[in-house]
């Protein structure tokens, strides 16, 4: 019979799995032991489930230690920080394995002794220790892999190719700046609103004024006066 503490493999990642195990074991701690004081069958089930959890965490820790050892192949026989991480992962894996053995011993005690409650408590404590050791082994393995196979830095941004100085576009006009056009333009005819000035709209019908408007408009107020038309300032 399986307990709710048992979590099958490949259901979640190792870290999430371990967090879930720790949370479950914490809930099923002293309070659960107190509830099962008069229920030895339940204590035996809890001990079995905790032992299974500890065994799975020990297996995960051994896999992490192997990953870390594989990463040391890039060291070329030199003892580096990668080897240090591999040693740490191996040490944590051994701790997880020992905790799993303790959990199995506690399970056996729960099955055979007259007080299975104590065996269930010890099995849960061993499962927690195995889980913590498995997390340490995985962290060390991750660090070893990152140091052995660092991610390449992103390439620098490429500057746009230099295209030379920007040349300003020059427009030729039919008349020189501030040219005297009084004799060529009927100012009053173009001044349709009789305000004494010629706007761009008013000179739009005159190709010469339209082309040279900016040159004639000496004060750049957007209007041409008779003085400006005559070439004055």
Question: Please, could you describe this protein's structure?
Answer:
By secondary structure, the chain is an all-alpha fold. The chain has helices at residues 14-27, 30-35, 40-71, 81-112, 116-148, 187-190, 207-211, 213-216, 226-229. It is built from nine helices and no strands. The model is unreliable at 1-12 and 172-179 (pLDDT under 50).
Percent helix: 55-70%
Rg, rounded, reads 44 Å
Beta-strand percentage range: under 5%
Total DSSP helices: 9
Low-confidence stretches: 1-12, 172-179
The string of secondary-structure elements, in order, is HHHHHHHHH
Search tags:
233 residues; mainly alpha; 0% strand; rod-shaped; disordered N terminus
Strand and helix map with partners:
Layout: H1 14-27, H2 30-35, H3 40-71, H4 81-112, H5 116-148, H6 187-190, H7 207-211, H8 213-216, H9 226-229
Helix pairs in contact: 1-3, 1-5, 3-4, 3-5, 4-5
Could you give a short description of this structure?
This protein has helices at 14-27, 30-35, 40-71, 81-112, 116-148, 187-190, 207-211, 213-216, 226-229. It is an all-alpha fold. The radius of gyration is 44 Å and the shape is rod-shaped.
């Amino acid at each position: 019979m399986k307990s709710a503490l048992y979590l099958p493999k490949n259901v979640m990642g190792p870290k999430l799995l371990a967090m879930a195990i720790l949370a479950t074991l914490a809930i099923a701690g002293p309070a659960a032991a107190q509830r099962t004081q008069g229920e030895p069958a339940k204590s035996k089930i809890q001990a079995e489930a905790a032992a299974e959890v500890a065994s799975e965490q020990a297996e995960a820790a051994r896999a992490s230690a192997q990953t870390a050892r594989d990463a040391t192949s890039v060291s070329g026989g030199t003892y580096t920080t990668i080897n240090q991480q591999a040693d740490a992962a191996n040490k944590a894996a051994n701790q997880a394995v020992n905790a799993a053995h303790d959990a199995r011993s506690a399970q056996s005690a729960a099955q055979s002794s007259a007080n299975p409650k104590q065996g269930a408590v010890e099995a849960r404590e061993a499962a927690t220790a195995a889980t913590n050791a498995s997390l340490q082994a995985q962290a060390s393995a991750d660090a070893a892999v990152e140091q052995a196979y660092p991610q390449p830095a992103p390439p620098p941004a490429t500057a746009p190719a230099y295209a030379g100085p920007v040349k300003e576009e020059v427009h030729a006009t039919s008349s020189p700046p501030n040219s005297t056009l009084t004799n060529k333009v009927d100012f009053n005819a173009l001044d349709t609103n009789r305000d004494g000035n010629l706007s761009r709209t008013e000179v739009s019908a005159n190709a010469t004024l339209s082309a040279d408007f900016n040159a004639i408009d000496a004060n750049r107020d957007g209007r041409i006066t008779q003085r400006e038309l005559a070439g004055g300032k």
